[in-house]
Amino acid sequence: MVVPSLDYYWPDVIRGAREAAAASGARLVLRGATYQAADERRQLSRLVETARVDGLLVAPTTTGDEGEELVRWLQGAGVPVVLVERAATVGPHQEAMESVVSDHVFGAAMAVRHLATLGHRRVGVTTTTQSPTAPHVRRGWRQACVELGLPLDGTPDLTTVDQRDPGWPEALDAVLDACVASGTTALLVHSDPEAISLVERCQERGMRVPGDLSVVTYDDEVAELCDPPLTAVRPPKAAIGQAAYRLLAERLADEDPQRPTHRVVIEPRLIVRASSAPPSSGQA
């Protein structure tokens, strides 16, 4: 199993896969990469060539020239492959590879519907650059806004650096300035560290959460530890790992060369906490 990080988001995915493997008497060999296709290719090649693995669970980079080349390499790796929280197609007919993913589009739309039910009419979104999840979150946000008749023109739809970047403080103020200027009363933020930092900056600027701005975070790694605790969309991380291992095990056990490709999609959950509430009087 090769994942891009061992310290955020992925530990619960790994735990799910490890528990499923242990229950079936299999051994899971884990490697951590760095969100770089070249590093992932190096780790995977080493596993295939030296570890005598029967199959691969992998969350690869799939975009850019190196990502596309990595996907082609995986297709020809000589062992069954299940993509984890990634999807890809290969070949002239764009045939799908086997995968298990969270329905991030549905999860983001669920957050928008929650905020609209509370009475918010202008719901913004902010995500970070280079996040593979961000395009899905943004698509779900946009689809739900259109479905519910929420305005998009002028509503914050922002991509920023993440909170570890030196430019984060300026990006954070730009997000909040855009919310104030547009009359936005609710914001969907990916992910938890950025959302917590945003709430802290709101407090420094005298903006109340949720009084002036309701905040929903996407990930729910540490959202409950914020003050106030953050309403969050929680991807089904452990279930993703379990399902990915089981799909791989089924592929290994099935001797039918015509077995169809399986793609498993699992829905996130919305956890409602104190950071989302109806807009203050006069804001709705």
Automatic annotation (TrEMBL):
The keyword DNA-binding applies. InterPro entries: LacI/GalR-like_sensor, Peripla_BP_I. Keywords: DNA-binding, Transcription, Transcription regulation. One of its GO terms (molecular function) is transcription cis-regulatory region binding. Pfam families: Peripla_BP_3. Residues 112-276 form the Transcriptional regulator LacI/GalR-like sensor domain. This is Substrate-binding domain-containing protein.
